[in-house]
Amino acid sequence: MKLGRRQFITAAGVTGIAGLAGCSGGPSSDATPTDTDGDSGDDSDGGGTETDGGANAATNVGIVYATGGLGDGSFNDQAQQGLQQAESAFDLQTNSLQPQEVSEFASLQQQFASSTDPSYDLISCIGFLQADALGGTATQYPDQDFQIVDSVPTNDDDEQYDNVASYTFREHEGSYLAGTMAGLLTLDSFSAGAGETGSDSTNLGFVGGVESSLIQKFEAGFMAGANAVNTDIDVQTNYTGSFNDPSAGREAASSMYSSGSDIVFHAAGNTGTGVFQAAQEAGKFAIGVDRDQSVTRESYADVILASMVKRVDTAVYSAVEAKVNDSFETGSTTTLGLDDNGVELVLGQQLGGELPDSIVTEVESTRQSIIDGEIDVPSDPSNV
Q1: What does the alpha-carbon distance between residue 189 and residue 378 come to, in Å, rounded to a whole number?
Q2: pLDDT tens, 204-214?
């Protein structure tokens, strides 16, 4: 299939993948109920989110966002989009909570689980950092159905909880495409928007948030894709320890650009905003994550080459859809990759059309090779 210039794979509609569900972790905001248009507070009329326990609502859904909160232009906003799409499609009553710290996850999960007015049919937990708390909450409330994105929590017997549905992604596959594109560009003299590369550079960068096996999948795929282009390419790596610290992202990326990196890929939530700032200051390029950040962070579109999009929206929507249709399966894991459009590399709205045709063609070919099983993408940096 020939793909358009704006993206290497066509995004699946949220209804295109049946039976998804999920909870994951990231940066933060106030731990107060929020409506789904991102405004925090108690207003039950905002954004299509009802908090008044209306009698006409057939399904009650509570969502606990990752730290970093709404407005991150990335992970949480993508989850919110899935919930908003579900609100448009089904008769729902929804409520949401935004933690400031990881330590708040347990109490916020329990706040929904213990509620009787309304009683929640589904509690969606966004982000892998919620896994430890969810283990305790799921045990305490065995009759409550949960969804978690980006983690598969297990009990002491290493078994999945009977009341939790896990949704994970093959992030390393989409990141491999990002590495392939970056590796090809850094070996060439390329200029577009506010950035440029130098043909004498063999240096790229990766900025992660909290170091974990999940974020290392992004790093591993990116490194492998770049090294497949040229084994001499060096990838600098820095984990800032936060998904909500743009200043740390800016500092990490600035150091990489100063050390010769032409392109920096981030998997760091709102911390990645600082990566874009550093790219503009250095006259270099960056690659976004989770959403098309050339759109959600439009002021940096002149340096964002592409984004490795993860369809958290699809996972949230599909979990709600399954719950509404009485087909929600707990104790299970659904994993999404390139073959089912769970991840995708989307070219930047401003710079995508400037990329050389030869590079676009090579990335398209690489994508198909991964889907066909001809390329086995590592998920651990130590295996690159």
Answers
A1: 29
A2: 999 999 999 99
> pLDDT digits over 284-318, tens only?
999 999 999 999 999 999 999 999 999 999 999 99
The answer to whether 23 and 125 are in contact (CB under 8 A) is yes
Cα–Cα distance, 103 to 137 (Å, whole number): 13
What is the three-class DSSP state of 65?
Answer: coil
Q: How many residues does the chain have?
A: 384
User: How far is CA 294 from each of CA 169, 288, 290, 301, 352, rounded to the nearest angstrom?
Assistant: 22, 8, 11, 4, 10
One-letter amino acid at 358 equals S
In the chain, the domains with their CATH numbers are: 33-169+312-337 (3.40.50.2300), 171-310+339-383 (3.40.50.2300)
Coil, strand or helix: which one is 186?
helix
Query: Is the pTM above the cut of 0.90?
Result: no
Q: Could you say which DSSP state residue 4 is in?
A: P
Side chain identity, residue 220: A
